[in-house]
Amino acid sequence: MGNVIIIGGGAAGMMAAISASASGDKVTIVEKNEKLGKKLFITGKGRCNVTNAADMDTLFKNVCTNSKFLYSAFYTFDNHMLMDFIEGAGCRLKVERGGRVFPVSDHSSDIIAAFAGELKKRNVTVRLKTEVTEIITEREENGSGIKDKKLKCVGVKLSDGRVMECDKCIVCTGGLSYPSTGSTGDGYKFAEKTGHRIVKTKAGLVPLETKESWCRELMGLSLKNVSLRMVNGKKELYSGFGEMLFTHFGVSGPLILSASSFYSGRENDNVSLYIDLKPALDKEQLDRRLLRDFDDNKNKSFKNSLSGLFPSRLIPVMTELSGIEPDKKVNEISKEERKGFLELIKGLPLTITGTRSFDEAIITRGGVSVKDIDPHTMESKLVSGLYFAGEVLDLDALTGGFNLQIAWSTGYLAGRG
Length: 417
Hints:
With 417 residues, the chain is an alpha+beta fold. 29% of the residues lie in helices and 28% in strands.
């Protein structure tokens, strides 16, 4: 019987422990927090978007970085296998708009409780408030007793100086997002110290800061069913449809968070956003709508004729950006002014100046290079018996439960290895 240590008791760590226990190994989770699943607890605004019910093609399309690396992980333990597992553990699930999967109760604590129950059932030892500071390795010996060049993992060192011996160690420490939950980059240090390459880390699925100060006036205003284009010069980087939110620094919300994945690495470029406030109407249809609205309000001032088009808080901003005199009578607006206003509605412009910090990021982009990891087992190619799973790896996806599926799938594969 082997001795497996898993560093980190989040999504990947708990799944790795459950998977590893199936082989009869002695499994121990070492977690520096006072409870399991601390980051899982706050995901999906406390509701926990555990996965997405999409088909396999859609799963892969929503992975932004190194999707091919996930082939074995996704096919070994896919989203429907995960859903069956969670429901079998006593937590009922539901599928919402966009395939997002949540617990029926809308409480992330029920997901964590289901996993905790399964860990107990499988006799997995959980050591809370226990911090690993180092992974211990030694040179492997070949059949003749001569030490080989390759390293093997033989244990972990704790912050109190004690050593825990193991045959295998799985690093599931997460990334750098939400550092208050314990995600402080420990896994990168372990990986680097054992010779692994680290792809530069950046905040991912993160709100965007904009140059335009009028966003501050709209702080808290949410727009649903809008479409968005992100462009760098003439090159389109991203387009999407959904919900967004104005903030005191710029923009946020699901649509913006997904767009942020395509902004990464372009901080020195001139990147702009264009928001289509009426995506259901093409320009001809919108022009007919404007003509109809203007005709119905022909004796009103321009600023008082827009209540049918926009939320009330957006009207002063749209009026100012249009360049049309606010008190101008609607029947005096020229065709050129109307056409210019139409273009503004179909492409409200914003200039991106940067992203928010890791404190506000949902995930980390970058991490342990997948070139150093065997995609069929999640084992290091450099250190035998050492595995990596979840956000610590250079893998990331768009919003909608896809990042958690990466954690579940890679954790399961690492545990099985």
